[in-house]
Amino acid sequence: MDLGERLKVIRKRHALSQRELAKRAGVTNSTISMIEKNTVSPSFSSLLKVLKGFPMSVEEFFTIDLVKSNQVVFRADEQADMQAQGVALKLIGHNIPDRGLSMCRETYPPGADTGEEMIKYNGEEAGTVIEGEVELTVDYKIYHMKAGDGYFFRTNLPHRFRNISQETAVVISANTGPTSTHPDKEQAQSDAA
Q: Which is nearest to 93 in space by CA: 156, 185, 2?
């Protein structure tokens, strides 16, 4: 897939018009149009500027899988391995475009933390602790969870996960939201794509 076609597909996935992307990126509408039609080849700095309208890294732009996938079963070795803030993530279905749900197996070694700065985005998250213990903070209220405990919260509330025990913790989670990912998981997905 050429650069122009790739930009067009990604722009449409983000439900942006050429005009809206141009506005967000600080370029003219005709610039987006010409890139998508392959009548101009943008410089690296111009491409970086356009990608800030999503936002998206250059690496993600060129490596994201844009082909529709009919895959149903994802074997252990087919799940995207990612790292974010010391948390190991396995994302199921990372190559399914336009999905409305993200499903992860999250492994928190002792001391692992999603970050001191709490995160929030529009969506929902649910999960269950299957091994060990985690501390979940939602809207500045702290919850101590052990294996078998589950959670559900609206992700527009600031939140954070950490393992404060001396044993590894494993969580299975599902979330919805912009691009169906957690911001810390989103960065990890970018790194894994």
A: 185
- Which residues are CB-contacts of 160 (< 8 A; sequence separation ≥ 6)? 113, 114, 115, 116, 118, 119, 136, 137
114 and 140 part of one domain = yes
**Of 63, 86, 108, at which residue does a domain stop?**
63
On whether residue 132 sits in a domain, the answer given is yes
Q: Could you tell me if 142 and 123 are in contact, meaning their C-beta atoms sit under 8 angstroms apart?
A: no
pLDDT digits (tens, 9 = 90+) for 95-122: 676 677 889 899 999 999 988 888 888 8
What is the rounded CA–CA span in Å between residue 128 and residue 75? Answer: 21
Domain of 96?
Answer: 76-192
**Measuring CA to CA, how many Å separate 147 from each of 65, 130, 133, 171, 174?**
35, 5, 6, 9, 17
Whether 115 and 140 map to the same domain: the answer is yes
pTM tops 0.70, yes or no: no
Angle subtended at Cα 124 by Cα 114 and Cα 181, rounded to the nearest 5 degrees: 55
The values of phi and psi at residue 97, to 5°, are: -75, 155
Q: Are residues 27 and 103 in the same domain?
A: no
**Tokens representing 34?**
């010409």
Domain assignment present for 71: no
Q: In the structure encoding, which two tokens stand for residue 158, read together? A: 């600031």
